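[Automated response] Your request has been received and processed.

Submitted sequence:
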Amino acid sequence: MLGTATTGHATTNPADLVMDDRVPTAHQITVEHSFETAHRLPHLGGKCTSLHGHSWRVAVSVIAPRLSDEATVVEFSALKAGIRHWIDTHLDHGTMLGVQDALVEPLAAAECKVFRFGTGHACLAGEAEALAADLMWPTVEAVAVLVRRMSQVVLAGLPCAAGARVGRVFVRETDLNSATTGPLDGS
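Generated structure:
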């Protein structure tokens, strides 16, 4: 306490309210986007063997141990634009399938947008599909991994705070089904 007010109560200098620097802290921002995409999961059996669509929703968090000189983790509009552009270009109003799915060729031949999971080799995949080369099927969990990887690529191309990285990524495929992926440390 630095002094007393005229009422006799102690007053505090705002600088004294700084948190204990010995406790590790992080800053986090989150951007969201939604898109419409079909998929099917024939390897699981049941009703998901049929081609069906969802209104997907993603939330991507970026964390940094300290803010940049501009007092940001990363500029929101640049991050949103990069993530949304990638999703809209490669996933929105398309179909996500495993590379071995029998529907890949007929849909591609019909000039439908198809994003293939599980190509296994970068040479078999386009640059975007290479992010899912080791993910065999477009489960909600695999889509979360894909979105996290893509978001890290987007973040790497932007000015941001030192040490900024993609943290948790949340993907919702229905009102009841979602997946989250990110660092084990809880950030």
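Summary generated for your ticket: The beta strands are 3-4, 10-11, 27-39, 52-64, 94-98, 114-117, 165-172, 178-181. Residues 1-5 have pLDDT under 50 and may be disordered.
If you did not submit this request, please reply to this message.
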